[in-house]
Amino acid sequence: MAGMFGTLAFALALVQPLGTLAQEPESPFVCNLRVLTAADRARKEDIARTLAAMITRVRELPDGFEFQFKSEPTTLPLVGEWTWTERLCCPFFDFEIRIDREGGPIAFRLTGRPGTKDFIRADFGKWLRESRN
After folding, report:
1. Binning pLDDT at 50, 70 and 90, where does residue 103 land?
2. Of these four, 12, 26, 106, 115, which has the most CB atoms within 10 Å of its CB?
């Protein structure tokens, strides 16, 4: 038994440094809209305005915010389309979509590494003001 744990500890020591070397550099907190066409940018803004009007609740999280939207047939496709373009221009975000059972709200979490919440506060003012806590 003791030999097995010694081997495991050695294996973990070898793997851990390799994992840290494989990390990619982090992108800056900058929204690079140049990766989108003019039509994509206009569509993204239209969707953002529509979604802002559909917000029913905003919850602050340790590393970002959760936005809850009305559960309507158009909500999920709009959240999905907006997320697709947002991930291209702001690759530092983590996105999570949750759909509650029984026709409950659609929740969208926008989170990330330290500093992400401050970026959201600065860039998503309309979504935060539309909150109906």
Report:
1. confident
2. 106
